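Annotated sample (chain length 91).
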Amino acid sequence: MKKSWIRAAIFGCFMIEGLAGCSSVKDGPDGGHTVSWYLHHQSKMREERQWCANSVDRSKLTSCQNAGKAGAKALGYNAKKAMQSLGNDLP
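Output written by the structure step:
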């Protein structure tokens, strides 16, 4: 029983290490996400856009393009969410 617990713990550590590396450093601090994800995580979107702005070469990366598209849609997205929330508060 003790050996199986130790094996499970070691396996878990390897899985966490593997998943932690899913986003490549070349894709930025929060790279590899869709436009929709960036809209739902706007602080991460701003970090990604700032990272992308630091180098002209980065503008071609899919992550930078997705963060940029999300930034362009953010005002409308936030306004829609605010209107929906106001609508829910009305009698």
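Annotation: The chain has four helices and no strands.
Annotation: The helical segments are 2-20, 35-40, 42-53, 62-89.
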